[in-house]
Design a protein that fits this description.
Blueprint lengths: L3 H30 L3 H27 L19 H28 L3 H31 L3 H16 L7
The structure holds hydroxy diiron-OXO moiety.
Hydroxy diiron-OXO moiety binds next to α1, α2, α3 and α4.
Length: 170
């Protein structure tokens, strides 16, 4: 049986992953409306990934004897001034998620809940990967600056990234 505090904290995390999915979806729409197809595909994929992160937690809570709560959807931001601004926001969002995952790991440790502690390791590794990905994207954008041709290539690169298989965690 899940400790109540852990159940509550995991449900909070379900909410965050759901919000991340909605935020990526809003970003995908923005990129698509600007004609950046590759970036849009990449962001749609990110949105799907976050939904899977949410579902993986959801199933875990119920499998572990808790009660998973389907979260309401808070309104994500829908307007952005530039690609650097959009990707900065993503990196901040992912850093925030990593922080919360670390807090959850600590809580599971405090409560001596080894099963949840073990389950959360997948998220620890995933967040490390995602933060690294978005840091490298931001580095590329710094080099690109206002160069339209380079931005076009950047969009094509993200299209390739979007085509990579997503490892399904559920
Ligand atoms: Fe990248 O947020 Fe999910 O875990």
């Amino acid at each position: 049986m899940l400790h109540k505090d852990i159940e509550t904290a995991l449900n909070k995390q379900i909410e965050r992953e759901g919000f991340a999915s909605a935020q990526y979806l809003a970003m995908a729409s923005w990129a698509e409306s600007k004609g950046f197809e590759g970036t849009a595909q990449f962001l749609y994929r990110q949105s799907d990934e976050e939904r899977m992160h949410m579902l993986k937690l959801f199933h875990y809570v119920n499998d572990a004897g808790g009660y998973a709560v389907s979260p309401g959807v808070a309104s994500p931001r829908i307007e952005f001034s530039s690609f650097p601004e959009l990707f900065e926001l993503i990196l901040e969002q992912e850093k925030g998620v990593s922080e919360k995952i670390n807090e959850l790991v600590e809580l599971s440790f405090d409560k001596k809940d080894h099963t949840t502690h073990n389950f959360l390791q997948w998220y620890v590794a995933e967040q490390l990967e995602e933060e690294a990905l978005f840091r490298s994207i931001l580095d590329k954008l710094k080099i690109i600056g206002d160069n339209g041709g380079a931005l076009y290539m950047f969009d094509k690169d993200l299209q390739k990234e979007a085509g990579k298989n997503i490892e399904s965690p559920i």
